[in-house]
Structures are given as structure tokens and as C-alpha cells.
Amino acid sequence: DRLLPDSEVLAQVAERGLAFYRDGHNGRGRVMIQLADGELFRIDMPAPFNPWAWPLLLLVALVLGGVLAIALFLALREVDSNLRAVESVAVRIARGEMGARVEAGESRLVTRLAVSFNGMAEHIQRLVQVQREMIHAVSHELRTPVARIRFGVQMIEDCQDQEALQKQLDGI
């Protein structure tokens, strides 16, 4: 008796031969069928789909995690290749290739770094050029008095007269 549904469901089964109803305890769907010989069969439907079930949530989390991991890997690979390009230009500048520059394209993730690095390289190149010009000017300015002193010393070697020798020493 306890397996039988209420009287309304039994009335539908008697009238049509089958009835669909929901169990009052857990809300699951059930079908009651009456065979030709009068025997009743009860078919329990599976539990309704639960979109918040932990296996489904775990699957969604794994799929999202995998997609995010792949996206992060691809983005970091792009950043790594851009940083390697900046590193190779830095090595070239350290070797003395002052004209080396990082190509900064529109789609690069490290564009601001590349632009800043190129500005720094331009500034260093200008400083090195100014330093070379200054060293050249200083060495030229030092060579002129040294040459004059050397010439004066040679004149002293040839001097026989004390007055001429004093004049050369005063000039030096």
C-alpha cells in the first residue's frame, strides 16, 4: 500500500492505462503503467538536471582554468619574445653598436618599454658623441702647448748665449 500513489493517480491509470505524477517526498517524476493483465508497474524517472551539481561545477572550473592557462601562456610568450628583443638590443649597445634600436610596433605589449629604451639609447649615443668631441678638443688644446714647450726645449739645446737661453726659458 505504501508504494501506491494517491487515488487521483490510480484513477488516471484506470482510465488511460498510464499516469505521470510527482512524488510528494523528493519531487521526482514517476510513471505508473497498467498492463493488460491488470498488473501495475512503477517507473522512477531520474532526478531532474541540477546545473549546480559539484561534478558540473568542477568541469566548468577545469575548462575555464584550462582556457585561462592557455591564454596566459600565449600572452606571456608574446611578452617574453618582446623582452628578448629588448635584451638583444641592450647586448648590442653594450658591445658598442650605438645605432641599435628596438623596433616598436603597434601590436607589441612592451611598446612603452621599447620607446623608453630607444630614447635612452639616443641619449647615451649623444653623450658618447659629446664625450668624444670633448676629448678630441682637450687633446688638441693640450697638444698645442706641449708642442710649443717641446720646440722651446729644442731651441734651448741650440742656445749658446745666456741671454737667449733666459728668453727661451721665460717663453716656456
Task: Walk me through this protein's architecture.
- The protein is mainly alpha-helical and 172 residues long.
- The protein folds into two domains: 7-44, no CATH class; 54-154, Orthogonal Bundle (Helix Hairpins), CATH 1.10.287.
- It contains four helices and three strands, in the order αβββααα.
- The chain has helices at residues 7-16, 54-94, 111-158, 162-171; strands at 18-22, 29-34, 40-44.
- The protein has a three-stranded antiparallel sheet, with helices on one face.
- Helix 3 (111-158) packs antiparallel against helix 4.
- The protein is rod-shaped, with a radius of gyration of 49 Å.
Anisotropy-based shape: rod-shaped
Q: CATH class of the largest domain, anyone?
A: Mainly Alpha
Number of DSSP E strands: 3
Mean pLDDT: 86
* Straight-line N-to-C gap: 135 Å
Rg over CA atoms:
49 Å
Q: Kindly report the CATH topology of the largest domain.
A: Helix Hairpins
Strand order of the largest sheet: 1-2-3
Order of helices and strands: HEEEHHH
Q: Count the domains.
A: 2
Sheet with the most strands, sense and barrel status: 3 strands, antiparallel
How large a portion of the residues is in β-strands, by DSSP E?
5-15%
Instruction: Count the DSSP helices.
Output: 4
* Poorly predicted ranges: none
* Helix-strand category: mainly alpha
Q: How much helix, percentage-wise, in residues?
A: 55-70%
